Structure formats: structure tokens, C-alpha cells
Amino acid sequence: MPRKGMMGHFFSSKSSSSAISHGSSPSRASLYTPTSSFSSDAAMERTLATAETMITKWNADISSFAKVTSLFYENRKEARDYIKCVHDLQKSMHLLVMEDSNSEKLVRGQNLMETAMKRLQKEFYQILSMNRAHLDPESVSARTSRSLTRSSTSDDDDDDGSEDEIRIAGESITEVEDVSAIAMADLRSIAECMISSGYGKECVTIYKIIRKSIVDEGIYKLGVEKFSSSQIQKMNWDALELKINNWLKSVKIAVKTLFNGERILCDQVFAASESIKESCFTEISREGAQILFGFPEIVARSGKKSPEKIFRTLDMYTAISSHWPEIESIFSFESTSVVLSQSVNSLIKLGESVRTMMVEFESAIQKDASKSAIAGGGVHHLTIHVMDYLSLLADYSNVLVDILDGYPPPAKSSMPESYFDSSDSDEAPAPAISLRFAWLILVLLCKLDGKSKHYKDVSLAYLFLANNLQHVINKVRTSNIQYLLGDDWVTKHESKVKQFAANYERLGWGHVIDSMPEDPTAEMSPEAVKEFFRRFNTAFEQAHHKQAACVVPDRKLRDEIKSTIARKVMAAYRQFYNTHRVVLRGERNLNLLVRFAPEDVGNYLSDLFFGNVGSWSSLSSSSGSSHSKTSRSR
Fold first, then answer.
1. What is the spatial distance between Cα 464 and Cα 109, in angstroms, rounded to a whole number?
2. What pairs with residue 551 in β-bridges?
3. pLDDT band at residue 259 under the 50/70/90 scheme
């Protein structure tokens, strides 16, 4: 304690001086000569006279002026003199108590000290109360960083230097921040004076009461409430989501402004004492912080674990983890470690909930029981839902890496092929998050493979698989999933799409190509020519009629399939048409025999895969008309 330190200092200095003078170790009674005693007595008298004048002037019990006027607000220079006067009085009393502990001057000094402490206690309260607006956490946290407030304690006589620092700071900060800085400096000088005089308890009590009310009010205004598990369980999701959204908005303000500002103020005011600083901040902030950081744990413990709630759960996890450096710094005292423990517990429980929800999501994919085939072999609603879900989930990959770290990955034996590039080896295994996303997509693709069997037309089943896998790839490429799975995964599955598309082309249009002779330009009889035209007409009409309702939503895939079909069908038919149509020039009803010009075939194919069921009849009539004009012109 400062009192003991001073007494030891003065006692040892006097002992040394006396020992040197007399050459021996004197008794305590002989330490002070009559001259030194008289000198100390006179100094004490002068100090008492000065202190009595200053302290009596601001004694609210005997002065109406002092009762209604603030010392620090009225005259800050006189306030500094008041603080110095109290320090001088304290030093003189320490000296005198060693010379004459029964001196009546000590009684006078103690009475003056009590009056001064009462005045400073009032000033401390007034500054805290009158400057609530300027000492709100936002103003405090905006003014300075916490690193600047952790400087060493200034000397008792360094107030003028503090004033200079405030003046310099005021040149670069707003007026509100300047007032905040002055108020903090005044509070600090009062706190240091009272603590060094042995009246720290009175100072701390006032500080805790006023500042805790401000923090509690801040928590209330942020809408942060204390809930029990039963209350959370009884809430419907809409109501709970509103509470979560409000918490997400509040936690950033609470950490960066409310608690950070309060820690800065506490560090500044009680810079002279680590223990008092810790005690004050802990009592002021611990309860509110535990309520704030305890909410996610209660939600994670009590809320339902349905997959659609995973995103709000991840939002809460992200809110705590992204602010963890600030949380750890603000609540760095041993007595506030319970706040850190609460935050960690919330992260643990939120992580467990996320893993449970991902398992539930996988189960939901596997349990999808829809059996109706999607018209035209289009993209299944399950594919859309799963990939939308995974795309959003991948946006949280930075926290999912931590959540899924150490979580048992799916067995590699359950994956039918190498799902990753060369980095997926024993030496460099794929991260757990990558394995988890790859597994969920594989579960979806297996489910889609089963749903493709609902198509009676095998060619349409392959088109269904091509469309759905293409949708999966598109979602992977346009989201963060691509960074989790890698380019090699995309390339492998793009080749699968081409395989599915090739199977569709072969099964859906192969018989049209087979209706043409192997050598379309070979010589043949008119009857053989007629037969090949009839066979092509029938095969093309059947294929187009069957495929007219097909859809390929992806433009690139649609153009590739149409281009491949057109190249194979039109190349053979154009050669045959140009070589052998002249043989039938004199035939009656030529339009019925040769129903399609090559241009008509191209028109039919270009209109495919948009789901235009009615296109056949309209193009049929137009192709007949077009062919008639062509034949007449020739």
C-alpha cells in the first residue's frame, strides 16, 4: 500500500542520516533532534494552514457556495491545486506520525483529510453523473485505443503534463471526445488521490454503482435478454429467429463499443491500481457479458436441429469467432475468465449443433421419396434445393473448417471413385470440410441416379442425369464450393455430363442416323432411294415427336447437344438428299415422299430442348411448304 511505502521511505532516510552523523545505531527516540523536530513541526503547521484554507473553502457543510458549485467544473486550476494540497497534507502527516504520533496536529490533519475525501467523493460522483453522455462507451472507445490507456501511472505532480496531453489531443478530436478526455483525466486524478489516501473503497463503490447502471442500460437498449432453456423451447422458429437476428446486431456493438469503452474508461480511471481496475470492470461488466455470450449456448442446447436453421447457427458462431481477439483482450482479467469460458462453451455447442444439422440434411436427401419423373428430363427440385443449400453453406467455409476439424469424415470406401485431385493422398489428405461437401454431393447424385429409373424412355433418363449433373457443376463453379472441391473435381464431372449427353444422343437419335445408308453417295435404284427417304421420314418424325418436350436449361449444354445431333443427322441426310433427289424428279407426290429438305431438318433441330411440345405440327406444315417452294424452283 502507498501509506506503508511512504512510511518506510521516510523512516529509512532519517535513520541513514542520523547514523552517519553519530557514527552508531541510535534508538528510535533519538532519531530526531530538537532542531529537526521543530522544522517538521513548522512545516506541518504551514501545510495545515494552507490545507485548511483550501479544504474549508470547498466544505459543503459550512459553505453555501461549495454546496452548489463543482470544484472541477468551476475552476480546473484550483481543482489541481486542491488535489496537490491533499497530497501535501498526506505526506506531512506521514512524516509527523513518526515524530509524534500523539500530536494534536495529526488530529487536525485527519479531520481535514476526512473533509477533503468527502469533497472529492462528491466531485467524483458529480463528474460521473454529469458526464454520462460524454463517458458513454461509444465516446470513450472512439477517443482512444486501449493500448494508450495502459501506460504507467503518472507521478503525483504530473497533472500539468496531463493537461498538456489533453490539450494536444483536443486539437485532433471532436468537442465531445475532448470533454470525455477531460472528464477521464479528472476522475483519474481524484481516484489516485483517494486511493493513495486510503479512501479507495468509497471511490470504487460510487464508480461501480454508476457505471454498472450504464452497462446494464446499454444491454437493455440492445435488446439482449436472459432466457431459460424452457423459454427457448417454447418459441416458434419465427420468434426465435427474430431474437437471434437482434442478438447478431447487438453483439458487435456490445463488444466493440459497450464493453470495450467500459474497459478503456476503467483502465484510465484506475491506472494506479491493477487490482481495483480488475475489481471494478469485473463487477460492472461480467453479468451483462455472460447474458450476451450465454444466449447462443442456450439456443444451441434447446433449439430444434432442423437443417434450415443451420445458417442462423453459423451466423452466431461467426459473430463470436470473428470478435474473439477483442473479447479475449477486453475480458483478460482472471476474474472475467468466466466470460471467456462462456464464449467458448457457446462456440462448442453451436459447433455441435451445426454438425448435427449437417447429418440431418444428409438424412433428408436420402429420405426424399418423390417418384414422379420431371417433365422433359429437367432439373429435379431436390437438386435445386440441395445445391442452393450447399452454396450458402460454403459461404461459411472459414468457420466450418474449425467446426468440422476432427469430425469423422465419410469412409473413403463409400466413395465409388477418387473424388479429389492428387492432393487427396495419404501424405496430404483432403480437409474434413472438402470431404464433407463431396460426400453430400455424392449422396445427391446417387439419389438422382435412382430417380432416373422412373423414366420409361432410357434416353430421357440420361438427359435427366446430364441436366442435373450440369446444374450441380454450375453451382459448384459459381460458389465457394469450387475452392473446397478443386478444379479436378469439376473437370471429372464435366466429362460425366458429356458421357450422359452422348448416351442420350445415341439412344434418342441413333435410329435416325441408322435410317441413312452407310455411304449416302453410293449409286442405288430409284426404289432403294424411295425406301431410304421413307425410313428417314419415319425415324425423324418419331424422334422429333418424342424429344420435342425435352428441356436442357443450361444454354451451353443445350447448344452442344443440338450441335452434335445436327452434325451427325444432317451430314448424312444432306449428302443423300443432294445425290439422290434428282432420281425422283419425275415422281408424283414428291412432297410426300421427300418430306424434308436439309434446311427443314436444321429448323426442327434448332427448336429442340426448350420444351416446345407444339413445335412439331407448326414446323411440319412450314417444312412442307418450304420444300414445295424448293422443288418448284428446281
1. 97
2. 610
3. very high
Q: What is the number of other CB atoms lying within 10 angstroms of the CB of residue 552?
A: 26
pLDDT digits 0-9 by tens, 597-629: 888 888 888 888 887 655 444 444 444 444 443
Q: Domain locations in the chain?
A: 204-367, 376-416+430-484, 515-607
Q: Give the pLDDT score at 132.
A: 81
What is the Cα Rg of the chain in Å? 44
Handedness of CA 101, 102, 105, 110 (dihedral sign): positive
pLDDT at position 530 over 90: no
Q: Distance of CA 279 to CAs 60, 144, 212, 286, Å? A: 31, 22, 12, 10
Angle CA 66–70–75, to nearest 5: 100
Q: pTM here? A: 0.78
**Residue 265, Cβ neighbours under 10 Å: how many?**
31
Residue 69 and residue 186: Cα distance in Å, rounded?
16
Question: CA 362 to CA 172: how far, in whole Å?
Answer: 57
For 581, half-sphere exposure in the C-beta direction (CA atoms, 13 angstrom radius) is: 19
Residue 516 is classified by DSSP as S
Q: How far is 322 from 306, CA to CA, in rounded Å? A: 25
Distance of alpha carbon 539 from alpha carbon 546, whole angstroms: 11
* Cα–Cα distance, 630 to 634 (Å, whole number): 6
* Torsion sign (Cα): 375, 376, 382, 387: negative
Cβ partners under 8 Å of residue 219, min gap 6: 254, 258, 288, 291, 292
CB 365 within 8 A of CB 382: yes
Residue type, 51: A
Average pLDDT, the chain: 81
The enclosing H or E element of 207 equals helix 200-221
Among 109, 102, 94, 111, CA closest to 49: 109
d(CA 47, CA 63): 22
Q: How far apart are CA 248 and CA 231, in angstroms?
A: 19
Give the pLDDT mean for 473-480: 96
Give pLDDT, residue 13.
34
Which stretches within 323-417 are classed as H helix? 324-330, 337-367, 381-394, 397-404
pLDDT at site 20: 30
